[in-house]
Amino acid sequence: MYFAIKHLHVTCVALSILGFLLRGYWMISGSPLLKSLPARVLPHVVDSVLLITAIVLAVMIQQYPFQADWVTAKVIGLVAYVALGTVALKRGKTRSQRLFAFAAALAVYAWIVSVALSKNAAGYLAAVV
């Protein structure tokens, strides 16, 4: 059961970033598709499944935020990623703010993945330091 849930989780990770990249492209190009119903609903469905599978996996492996540093780091990173993504796709007042937030969200996403793969709270930053 663990591997099936982990596979679903990783699939949702990939779908989530692909959707974010597509919506980012639409934001940059000024496409009206960014405001379409599927573009507004599907990310919430994918991200909800992603969050549910993350919680199930944490319970299964008994690694919880504030107990396991790397899980805490992922949760903090997730909050930053969501905040930056909101600025990039919706709340940024200028194009430059949106572009900066989009790039920053992608960097945070990469860091979250590196934390998940390394099980180290510093993620890829540990290799730099």
Give a brief rundown of this model:
By secondary structure, the protein is mainly alpha-helical.
Q: Keyphrases for this structure?
A:
129 residues; mainly alpha
Task: Please describe what this structure looks like.
The chain is mostly helical. The protein has one domain (2-128). Helix content is 81%, strand content 0%. The protein contains five helices and no strands. The radius of gyration is 15 Å and the shape is globular. The model has no long low-confidence stretch (mean pLDDT 93).
Draw up the topology in text.
Blueprint: H1 2-29, H2 37-61, H3 69-91, H4 95-118, H5 125-128
Coarse shape:
globular
Percent of residues in helices comes to over 70%
Radius of gyration, CA atoms, in whole angstroms: 15 Å
Element string (H = helix, E = strand): HHHHH
